[in-house]
Design goal:
CATH class of the domain at 49-192 and 269-441: Alpha Beta
Structural class: alpha/beta
Number of strands: 17
Order of helices and strands: HEHEEHEHHEHHHHEEHEHEEEEEEEHEE
CATH topology of the domain at 49-192 and 269-441: Alkaline Phosphatase, subunit A
Distance between the termini: 42 Å
Number of helices: 12
Shape: globular
Strand order of the largest sheet: 5-8-1-9-12-4-15
Radius of gyration: 22 Å
Largest sheet: 7 strands, mixed
Amino acid sequence: MLTLSGPSHGKLCDGYSRRDFLRIGGLAMGGLSLPDLLKAEAEARTGRQFKSIIMIYLCGAPPHQDMWDLKMDAPLEIRGPYKPISTNVPGIRISEHSPRLARMMDKLVPIRSMWGSPNGAHDSFICYTGRPPPPNGGAAPTGRASDPPSLGSVISRLKGQADPAMPAFVGLSPKAGHPPYGSPGHAGYLGSAHTAFRPNGAGVEDLKLNNISVARLDDRRSLLKGFDHFRRELDHSGLVESMDSFNQQAFNVLTSSKLLNALDLNQESQKTRERYGKGDPKNYGDGAPLNLEHFLMARRLVEAGSRVVTLNFGRWDFHDNNYPQLLRHLPLFDQGMSALVEDLHERGLSDDVAVVAWGEFGRTPVVNKDGGRDHWPRVGGALLAGGGFKTGQVIGATDRLGGEPSERPVHFGEVFATLYKFLGIDPHKTTVNDLQGRPQYLVDAWEAMPELI
């Protein structure tokens, strides 16, 4: 942890107001050499030269059969009260409570046959890694050093930062009553240098800047370099190297206003902000907020240079009152997701930014006595957009009751293999080392999805 303090006069050295999000913890960037900086500058002059992912974790697992896979031929206790509506792609129908998404189905890919959760236990791990949680559970609030890393951390490690002033990996995930619901995806054995920058979450107090001058910041940078050189001679564990990277990340961000600008939604037009809406910034139960401004912030972050942005949305664990709670969640998700996809297309980013929205498993076909749907790891759903993917299609299908895959089961690992390929990474040839120095592949034996690419 690094803390920079000085007299506070309410303004930063560049004249911007000091904001809570300038208390920075866990920046997912690596230090750049002068050649790297010059390369980044040259790329900026020739247009966008990197690709990004926005991953939306629908905390607690949404009911696929009430969203993308309605079963009108099933008994009432299975199909529920919602009606399907037509979309702008003939033959594809989705819930009546997603009219905005229905009007842009040509830009979307519903997957109706997701599987991979081993036992239906709540854990965001599979959504961020493509792998089942470790046998002894992966629900620790800060993850474990021995765990496989999340996609954001892997990309931070392999690709580094696209811009020296922007975190490679950002997590828009406030703390939640159930810790996995508040996870942005953990770094695991890749270490703290590749954890998510969280402008509104855990670790935000780790670094404080109180109106100190750039010259004074440079003095402290030099002092730290001296200490680190001394410690490096004594330490062979890699900890000092990791802290060097962490400190460099902090200095890079604090001497630029680019991250500050990306997080400042006031720079958007009123029309754009109204399109996204506000939602609710308060956590929904023990889950995440229904915060629509996070969708807009995610777009601003990838546009400014972040490679991976995760955001957590709502709390979809509806063991009771499934339909009243869906009437709160579905229209807001419909607004935020549709605004994001539309915005990416209008800004020419639809080929360079892939969007994935999903939960950790599906819900039971039969509605229980409390009007809810319980955990169902056998099949669930997902929604994809952007990435230059072949959109306007449905992938996979379930049986008449929505309880088992009947066509093209899709494992989480297949989606991850596709995302890595989209980023220009071969997941079957590229490895990262674990804590024992052993090379580990990014996914298991899963292949990229030919339907998408």
